[in-house]
Amino acid sequence: MPNEFTIKIAGEAGQGMQTIGAALSRLYKKAGFHIFANQDYMSRVRGGNNFFQLRVSEKPVFTLHQKADIVVALDKKSVALHKAGLSDKGVMVLDRKQSGISETEDSFFDVALHELAASIGGSDIFINTAACGVIAGMTAMTFGLLEEVIREAFSDKGSEIIEKNIKVAKAGYEFAQGNFKKKAFSLNAGPLKDTLFLNGNEAIALAAIKAGCKFYTAYPMTPSTSIMNTLAHYAAQYNIVVEQAEDEIAAINMALGASFAGVRAMTATSGGGFALMVEGLSLAGMTETPVVIAEVQRPAPATGFPTRTEQADLDFLLHAGHGEFARAIYAPGTIEEAFYLTLKAFNIAEKYQIPVLIMSDQHLADSYRDIEPFDLRRIKVERSIISKEESKEVSGYTRYKLTESGISPRAIPSWIEGVIYADSDEHTEEGHITEDAATRIQMVEKRLYKKMAGLCGEIEKPTEYNITGASCVLLGFGSTYGVLKELCEKSGNTLGFMHFSQVWPFPAKETDRILKDAKKIITVENNALGQLARLLKRECAIKIDGSILRFDGRPFDLEYVDARLKKYL
Amino acid sequence: MPNEFTIKIAGEAGQGMQTIGAALSRLYKKAGFHIFANQDYMSRVRGGNNFFQLRVSEKPVFTLHQKADIVVALDKKSVALHKAGLSDKGVMVLDRKQSGISETEDSFFDVALHELAASIGGSDIFINTAACGVIAGMTAMTFGLLEEVIREAFSDKGSEIIEKNIKVAKAGYEFAQGNFKKKAFSLNAGPLKDTLFLNGNEAIALAAIKAGCKFYTAYPMTPSTSIMNTLAHYAAQYNIVVEQAEDEIAAINMALGASFAGVRAMTATSGGGFALMVEGLSLAGMTETPVVIAEVQRPAPATGFPTRTEQADLDFLLHAGHGEFARAIYAPGTIEEAFYLTLKAFNIAEKYQIPVLIMSDQHLADSYRDIEPFDLRRIKVERSIISKEESKEVSGYTRYKLTESGISPRAIPSWIEGVIYADSDEHTEEGHITEDAATRIQMVEKRLYKKMAGLCGEIEKPTEYNITGASCVLLGFGSTYGVLKELCEKSGNTLGFMHFSQVWPFPAKETDRILKDAKKIITVENNALGQLARLLKRECAIKIDGSILRFDGRPFDLEYVDARLKKYL
Amino acid sequence: MNISDFKSNDEITWCPGCGDFGILTSLKKALVTLGKKPKDILLVSGIGQAAKLPHYIQSNCFNGLHGRAIPVAAAAKIANRNLTVIVTTGDGDCYGEGGNHFIHNIRRNADITVVVHNNQIYGLTKGQASPTTDPGYETKVQTGGVILEPLHPLEMAIALGCGFVARGYSADSGHLSWLIGEGISHKGFSLIDVLQPCVTFNKKNTYEWYGKRIYKVNDDPAYDPHDKSTAYQKACEWGERIPLGIIYRADKPSYEDKSGISNMPALAEIEINNIDITPTFKDFK
Amino acid sequence: MNISDFKSNDEITWCPGCGDFGILTSLKKALVTLGKKPKDILLVSGIGQAAKLPHYIQSNCFNGLHGRAIPVAAAAKIANRNLTVIVTTGDGDCYGEGGNHFIHNIRRNADITVVVHNNQIYGLTKGQASPTTDPGYETKVQTGGVILEPLHPLEMAIALGCGFVARGYSADSGHLSWLIGEGISHKGFSLIDVLQPCVTFNKKNTYEWYGKRIYKVNDDPAYDPHDKSTAYQKACEWGERIPLGIIYRADKPSYEDKSGISNMPALAEIEINNIDITPTFKDFK
Ligand SMILES: Cc1ncc(C[n+]2csc(CCOP(=O)(O)OP(=O)(O)O)c2C)c(N)n1
Ligand SMILES: Cc1ncc(C[n+]2csc(CCOP(=O)(O)OP(=O)(O)O)c2C)c(N)n1
Ligand code: SF4
Ligand code: SF4
Ligand SMILES: [Mg+2]
Ligand SMILES: [Mg+2]
User: What are the strands, taking DSSP E only, across B403-494?
Assistant: First the structure.
């Protein structure tokens, strides 16, 4: 593990692994390192076993390793559970006395966290701070940096609490410096950069704010909920209404109502909630009402694993909704893509007056990375409505006017002098119910053929890397970007990859062109059916040679894919 | 038009086209003819323009013609609307005075239906009977047969009404005999057969009764509602509970609750209602609860054309539901297949403990044909539960026991001494919530890989006709069976066809084998995307050369397909 | 504005004699009386005979999915509070398929007016029982007669704290248009349940049947719709006598007031071209 | 049967101190008192902390989708009326996502007992407002405090004609187990709304908060739960004093009685191998 190490903090739900993780993340970020952090948690509020995992590196990192170099075990169960997850020279930080563990092992680094917290801080609640101190000590951080992090974290808690925390941290730090003998975990810091540190859901929420979303409605559902939390947090500041719906059906219909009335609107959910939105999706298609929907996938069917990750809703999203209508589906692979594609989603939804889906998953949603601040000039807000100003000139308006592009100018009710009829039945250009066959044909062509043609001209380019040189090309979509990228970069010239951040309309021609001379093509997918491979089979001419699938609810890591690649190389 | 003619009865909703159509159907059936009848109606209760169309033939018929030989226009609008739909020598029966039509045309056969009804019956309500008399006269029926039909139809109305109707019918009959000079519409009756005359929905309902469905629940939705009506009609007699649900979500969940508790259960709906069942479908997959769902398609998106036909939900049904699980989808092409495949659906659902879909559409649902009585020995009720008797021996029961086949023996609550846990979360063999990765893998393999493997061994064989001889092979699924069959039969050796009455699991190998030497392959589909062609592209090796699509809400007819075939021949 | 300004060109597809005509007329009258312009009105509906109404009037219209009119309406109001938002819905649409939205939007209390064409039957789908069909009534599905307890919309609305709960009759257009006007003027969720004869499928609750039973509570000057317990008693009345009028009234802040959007420009009018999110970046550093 | 016969081996994942424990104990006690066997009980639930309960008790269990327990339960009862069917659900599960089924199954009146763990919060998803969260309560989503009128489950149930409407408290297990026993014995839909402190996310409605307010209506011998108007008044009480007990009772025929299945063998036990449909063929000739 040159130039990097991985820390895993494990314990029961409620023991504060996330607090420790967040503090350490800030610490290493301040020190000029790069970080990829992911979370593994159970669908319960207390007990069980969760962990927060932090990969710290001198170079930018995009994914995780299978094994950790330092495991902080906050309870007894964690010791047993995560022993196998230690790397070769890995160290298990534990409080043997508190956890009631009598045996000892080479890899153990016993720290009386509990005693330390109680004796110096005066209470158990300082255990997390103590642990931070220990890790900082073990990884050769300067204490001043940790102190800074603590001061910031507790800035609103008053000086007494701050000072206590610093004292506890210092004790942990010094204990580690004094007692931890292996000096494996020291990295060279790079230049300090003004980066952001956030997860996929936060990126989506920030993009929604930037895109001018003024009405966000959702029903809570893990792992999508933090999009709503983030927007709610900023709602007052940015003049956004965030409304918790009574159910997902209400959410999608409210989003459509708000959109029809003139605002950019969004909802988010996970697979089960999206299942309830399917009729509304079709309504968006028929009424030609823009809407942005984020589907943050988790393992299914039904309730499945509420807090884990999967990419098994690809086929579902591609074909959800009765009848035929145009849609676009983005599958961001990074925090950055989550941001930029959400921005694009709002523009495209409004331009084509269609539903646009952002397909994410728990892994992208809950994983953090340090990134360059978003370039706010890269994607502009492009409005595609008849503005209030322009509305004054409008007369004889019909909502579903037939045009070359399939797109009818969209007026906002109360802005124009005339009235607007939107209709879920098959309708005339005026928006009135019709039973006419010829009109039906024109309207299907409008909603489906013409809009799809337009959308095909704006497909997000897939990422390509070393396609021609590689003896094997890996394909993926969504959250697998990081693991593909790092694997390929490490492989020298052996591997290449192609990553789809838009899966509908599918860049079929582009893909055939790019991959036509690829020697071997393998999809890497977090599902059991190889849904991307199936889609490629239908849409493209190229042949897929195999799929590396994972469907146990856990994200891919570098070693997992590497091991399964052997048989193809 | 040798050996057959087509009659179309057109008028406003509420004018009784269906009554006339039903009476004429009985008449021609009694006379030993074969009949195919379809309906075209608007989504309104009064007014507009609807028609009932009746193809009468000396040989069995399976589909419709584009043009009618006799149009009975019950109102003024119908005259204008259906003039173009008259065949070359076609006759328009109309009441010029009543309809206020001053001009006349060669094709017109003016009958003062109104006057006739009023003067002889004493009321307007006899118009329908008068029309029946006229048509009977025009088509050289014996009046005795019509009298029989009338006596049966009004058997519960008292003799006065019966006699009046007979008098009116007679007057109409005699008027036609005296005044209708062209003798184009006389056929030779075949031997009288003991056939049934019913539509696709009725066939599904009868099969559900036979299959032992004891709990049927649905929310009314055209064109599925007549399945519920039929079952409700026979519910008391066959000990079935038919319960109207508060919404489609309730319907699917109630069906699952009843099924879990031990009965065979079913629900039906159309696309929009099915959209609301998608989460429940996934629940059926996860909890491994058998359920049969009929999706009687209508044109969408959203409300679409509520009373018309389309086959655009194929992709949707194939991929509906979050997550991955096994399902089977049948697409009956005839009334007979609707019956036998519904029976099979119940057996397969119970055997594999999965949701089974019957994909129908308005055209199959509302079209009638005379058919041989169902062979009740052909498909037996095959139970796949631990019977009450066997339950006594059961101990240590676990609901999701891992087995070679992926199928766990299914016990019924209260029958075994132990208890049964069914769970929508990922679960252990006992049915308790788990977060374990290894268990997850086993359960996905069980629900998906293993069950699919079993289902692949029981795929319904596609119908094949003249594949090798044909210069062009037509492919279809569901209600297009009739048009494919008749076109091919008529074509001599030019055309062949293959019809899929099961679309999932898809008979991919079989299809590749059958079609490997086919010269040209064209799909015929009631949708705009060519969804069957897409599916074949994904599942099979053979190449599709084109698609004949129709998406104006109307069914295919012989001439429609024929005209579009030209460019491929 | 006068009645003819609200005339739509779309052909009306209801059966002759249907109670829906009376509701259409009453609604137009109310809008004229209130001095509303077509462009400022949004009619939202689901699917059913009732739900076709927005096509038959000159005004903005969102004719959405069966059962889902209310969430569309509430959100449209929140997004563009310059609109006068009215829902025209059926007993099946509103209380059946849409029941959950009915409940929770009473709680939400956005300023919308919900006019329920309560014909006690599913009209458009040809005569199945609705949630309000009288017990015992036989249909093709309820072959042994309805066995479910009918839903009591007024009782329910009061129990949920709805601030305006009224019942009208489609054949009494003067009274009904007054009710609709009052409902629109009420700030918050207003429910107007309208007895509406379906001449084709409801052979029990006919014009005659209703005519014999209805009376107007507000004719009694002593009747105080602000008294919840009296109102609740009144709402329970159904049978020999059926009360019409404003059964219950309570003034409470609307969603717009509580959420603060009443003090902001309509959301739809907020400029979004150059929202600066950089100040928020600091929270992610 | 005694309490230990109802012990499940599954690990309980609730937070220490959670009110759900008290409900679990009370339910077990009630089942013991009624002399029920695990095999004859079916517990149906949706998703949420409350909805995990069926795993923690030895009995049949269908743990389905969030919000959809009630339709599963009602149909299971109809299909196999030998089962004692109980729903364990949360305030979000039952009144939020599942609101429409709640309404219409009160009307349907199948003989099921619905126990709502009403912690006035979404527990499992970490603390958003539920339909019963008190106004003003701040959460990560309701950052300015809840502005929706809380749903009044007891008022609503009475308005819908529910025959058994009760409120219990998770910390008073004796009383609660009595209520559950009465609910199960009542023939038809029984609602038992249970005040259940969520020690992690509901920092307002705590044990202390409830403890100060609750009292038992049935302690007053004059209280007549059969009197609808008294009951309705009582159901409206919430604030300084919160009534517990059987608030409303009405005897009415259950779905099973009205549909006639009470007089038939359980549907699940009807032999289906050789159903003869040929007599029906004549109707299609
Ligand atoms: C999801 C869905 N389910 C069912 C239907 C079919 N449907 C259309 S209208 C209707 C009932 C209408 O009843 P009501 O709301 O009382 O209106 P009415 O026709 O009586 O005015 C139904 C069940 C539908 N369009 N969508
Ligand atoms: C369709 C769907 N939407 C959302 C969720 C996420 N979810 C799970 S439990 C829950 C709320 C639980 O609240 P409540 O019913 O009050 O139960 P509690 O946890 O408070 O006991 C939600 C929103 C889900 N599982 N399914
Ligand atoms: S069916 Fe009934 S509700 Fe519908 S239009 Fe006709 S009379 Fe009116
Ligand atoms: S979060 Fe609340 S309701 Fe859930 S287990 Fe913990 S205390 Fe109980
Ligand atoms: Mg109605
Ligand atoms: Mg709760």
Answer: 421-423, 463-465, 472-477
